[in-house]
Amino acid sequence: MRAEGSKKFDRAGGLLLLLSTIGLLALLPAWIRPDPLGRSVDPEVFEVRLSAMVATHATGAEADGMPVVRPPPGSEVYLRAERWRFYPALELAEGGSYRLHVASRDAVHSLAAEGSERLLVSGRMQSLDLTATAEPPRLQCGEYCGLGHNRMAARITILPSRPSGR
Amino acid sequence: MDAADLVAFSPERAREIRGWCWLAIGALAIAGALALLLALSRTPVVQDWLPWDSDFFHRGLVTHVVFSFEIWFLAVAGSLAALTARGNRLGLCLAAAGAALLLLPTLANTGEPSLNNYVPVLVHPLYYLGLGVFAAGISLAVKRLGTPRPGQEPGRFGLSSLNLALLSALACFAIAALLIPAGTDSAHANERLFWGGGHVLQFVNTLLLLWAWHELARIAFHRPPLPPVLARACFGILALVALAAPLIYLWTDVLTIAHRRAFTALFWLGLPLPPMVMGVGLARLFARQRPDWRSPAALALALSLPVFALGGLAGFFLGVADTRTPSHYHAVIGGVNLALMGVFHTRLLPALGRPVKPGKLLRAQYLLYGFGQLLHALGFYLAGAAGVARKTAGADQGLDSAWKLASMAAVGLGGAVAVIGGVLFVATTLAVLLRRDRTHAR
């Protein structure tokens, strides 16, 4: 009887394992969302807008060989993804809202930020809204793009908001 | 298979088993030597004394990964196939030729290194040819294991399941190669070429691990960790999920993030349960019975289980490009390695009439490698959680805090200790393989 009981447990365990796996795999479609395609953009037009932003809002400082740019809250911010950096470096005001536009100049990259990821391919621009908190947001490349891939993260500094004084 | 069966091989079959053992241990020797150099190049202070430039680091890393991950594991699978069923040596010859081809661009210091996930490459025709020839050899050898059948002895069922999973992995590589458009950027192309099949190879490696746990438990505890139907379910489920993987190429575009996520989801949802179930079975055996701690089977199991479990747990809490990812895969690979060390000592070497003497040297291999890997993996996890980037060396690591320095020092120390254990295993196994055969094999 004990052997019979063991056999029943054995079969039940096997069946439970199989059904559990099927149940888990049924969740797979929920994990797969279509890639956000972004908008088509002429690379030269993007570069013109990026250059204009840098010319208008550069602080004069440099970080990692890039100009540091301080766009005002509420503005459109342009970032170029290239091996292996996001150009330029940004200073954002704490609490400020920005509309980020990111495009790739060379290889295929991705923008992993705020729990989502967007592929960056030449000729397309990805946009996202960003509200700067006290902790600098982590924007990095999530698609292998070469030996420097693992250090490819946007250089963003948050400027603390000044308390209002009399 | 009992002791009488182990010495009943024909000389030809024994030669084939020995050939696979040589290929496996040779791959591990090459990978281990490179691992020591790479570990030293990431250790604070020591890294400044090394004369190599960053190009060698990356080429060395590529070769270390492929030899310690693909060649070593799959060569062990080839040896188990030869141990289990009759075949010919064509597969072995092709696998050895493939491995040799992989070494050529490495030794010539040529080919751009691509550190894409799962199967990093040197972008050179010889390298891709080597991978293809090796894959052909392994699939020929493992084909003899056939397909799993209901009612089959669980260990044999497991090896047949491994055969199916391997076929699926190779199919994924082939499908990706056909689908990736010509002219795709090299880094992106290599990443996507090996992403899907690389994931499925982990099902192969997990099947290898579960087979090893099953067999080692039979030796250490005189009973398997799970009853037969549940054991076959563990093996069969891994094979079924692996066989379903190529469907992802119909469902998603190979170059998209959705495609990448689909394989990650397959991993998360389809891989963990069978090793968890068998791990619980093993833990129950340890709780209920006291094994002979001098035996390699007991040592292998006692260390393989926690090391693999640490890696498995880390896998659920990874970052994007930091050292939590190497924490995960070093620990899971370490767990598999400990189990395969046990397989060498309890199955393969005795089958060749070359048993290993039990003693302190044998125990030291397991203890050094096992505890070294635990420290190594833990250090990587803590460093990654603090933001240390993966696949970097020297100043690129950005060790700008005491915590990061201490974590990476633990990585270096653990890595060095693990490598000592690994070197002991390789050296003693090579010495045994070079010894005269003591069997009266037919």
What does this structure look like?
The complex is a heterodimer of chains A (166) and B (442). In chain A, 26% of the residues lie in helices and 34% in strands. By secondary structure, chain A is of the alpha/beta class. Chain A has a five-stranded mixed β-sheet, with helices on one face. In chain A, strands 2-3-6-11 form a four-stranded mixed β-sheet. A two-stranded antiparallel ribbon of chain A has the order 8-9. In chain A, a hairpin with a 2-residue loop joins strand 2 (58-63) and strand 3 (66-69). The radius of gyration of chain A is 24 Å and the shape is elongated. With 442 residues, chain B is mainly alpha-helical. Helices cover 72% and strands 1% of the residues of chain B. Chain B is built from 15 helices and two strands. A two-stranded antiparallel sheet of chain B has the order 1-2. In chain B, strand 1 (112-114) and strand 2 (121-123) form a beta hairpin. In chain B, helix 2 (11-40) packs antiparallel against helix 3 (54-84), helix 3 packs parallel to helix 5 (125-142) and helix 4 packs antiparallel against helix 5. Chain B is globular and about 55 Å long. Classes of the chains: A alpha/beta (166), B mainly alpha (442). At the A-B interface, helix 1 and strand 9 of A face helix 7, helix 8, helix 10 and helix 11 of B.
Keywords:
heterodimer; A: 166 residues; alpha/beta; 4-stranded mixed sheet; 34% strand; elongated; B: 442 residues; mainly alpha; two-stranded antiparallel ribbon; 15 helices; 1% strand
